[in-house]
Write a structure and sequence with these properties.
Layout: E1 5-7, E2 10-12, E3 16-19, H1 26-36, E4 40-44, H2 59-62, E5 69-73, H3 80-93, E6 99-102, H4 115-127, E7 131-136, H5 140-149, E8 153-156, H6 170-179, E9 185-187, H7 193-202, E10 206-209, H8 211-214, H9 219-239
Parallel strand pairs: 3-4, 3-10, 4-5, 6-7, 7-8, 9-10
Antiparallel strand pairs: 1-2
C-alpha cells in the first residue's frame, strides 16, 4: 500500500517511532531499532551523548543520522525556558536540525504534561523556525490550540510515561483526532503490542514508544512485535471493521440453500 505517514512535508513508511533511551548499550539500541523498522527515533538531548562528551560512546556512531530521522526531545524539562534552551542546543549539535519533540512536564512523579508551559514553549519554538511535534494531554481543546500555533504533529498520552498501562481514554483520543488535521501520534503509556494495535485501529497516525521496548525482557523481539502490531492495526483501520451487533448473532456461513433435514 502507498500509505505513508507525512510529517512536516516529509513521508515515512513506518508509523512506529521509537526512543533511544533505557537500553543496556548502543548495540542493543541499534538492534531494537532495526527490528522495529522505525525511521524516526527520539533522542533525549540532556541524557544522550551526541558528541558533546568526546571520550564517551556517541549515539551518532551507532545510529547515524544518515540512516534515521532524529527527533531531539526535551525529556526532563519542567519549564518553557528549559525546553526552548534544550532544543536550541539540539539544533547546534545536529547541524541546524529543526524537527523536534517538545515535552514540558508538570512534576517528576506523574510526568504529566504542563500544558500551559507547553503552549508557551511551542509558540517560541515555532517563531524560531522549529518544526514542533508536541507531547500533550488528551485534551482536544489544548490539542487544537497547539495545532493553531503551528505544531506539525500532536502527541497525546495514552497513559502516564513509562507506566505500560495502555490506552486509558480512547474517547478523548478520538475527540483529538476529530479536532485536528495534523498527524496524531500516541505517545506514552504503551506496554505491549496489543496497545499499539488498538491505537492504530482507533485511527491514530502513529505510535511513539521507548520503555515498552527497552524494558521488555527481550527488547529486540518486542521491537519486532511492535512493528507487526502497528502495521496490523493500521491495516485493520483502513479495512473498516464490521459493525458491532449487540444482543444479536450472525452466522458465519450462508443460510440460503441449506439442506432441510425435515424434508424427504
Amino acid at each position: 500500500m502507498n500509505d505513508k505517514l507525512i510529517i512536516a512535508g516529509k513521508s515515512y513508511s513506518s508509523r512506529l517511532l521509537v526512543g533511544t533511551g533505557k537500553y543496556k548499550d548502543f548495540t542493543e539500541t541499534r538492534a531494537a531499532l532495526d527490528a522495529s523498522g522505525a525511521e524516526i527515533v527520539t533522542v533525549a538531548i540532556r541524557r544522550t551523548n551526541l558528541g558533546q562528551n568526546a571520550n564517551e560512546p556517541s549515539l551518532l556512531d551507532a545510529v547515524p543520522p544518515s540512516q534515521f530521522t532524529y527527533l531531539p526531545n526535551t525529556a526532563g524539562c519542567y519549564t518553557a525556558d528549559d525546553a526552548v534552551r534544550t532544543l536550541r542546543l539540539a539544533r547546534e549539535l545536529l547541524d541546524g536540525h529543526t524537527l523536534v519533540k517538545l515535552e514540558v512536564l508538570g512534576d517528576p512523579q506523574s510526568l504529566y504534561p504542563n500544558v500551559v508551559e507547553t503552549l508557551a514553549a511551542a509558540k517560541t519554538l515555532i517563531a524560531e523556525g522549529f518544526q514542533v511535534m508536541v507531547y500533550t494531554s488528551d485534551d482536544p481543546i489544548v490539542a487544537k490550540q497547539l495545532e493553531d500555533l503551528g505544531c506539525v504533529a500532536i502527541m497525546p498520552l495514552a497513559s502516564l510515561i513509562g507506566s505500560g498501562m495502555g490506552i486509558l481514554n480512547p474517547w478523548n483520543l478520538q475527540l483529538v483526532m476529530e479536532r485536528v488535521k495534523v498527524p496524531v501520534i500516541v505517545d506514552a503509556g504503551v506496554g505491549t503490542a496489543s496497545d499499539a494495535a488498538i491505537a492504530m485501529e482507533l485511527g491514530c497516525d502513529g505510535v511513539l514508544m521507548n520503555t515498552a521496548i527497552a524494558a521488555a525482557q527481550n527488547p529486540v523481539l518486542m521491537a519486532g512485535a511492535m512493528k507487526k502490531a502497528v502495521e496490523a492495526g493500521r491495516e485493520a483501520y483502513l479495512a473498516g471493521r464490521m459493525p458491532k451487533k449487540f444482543y444479536s448473532a450472525s452466522p458465519s456461513s450462508p443460510t440460503a440453500g441449506i439442506i432441510d433435514s425435515t424434508r424427504s
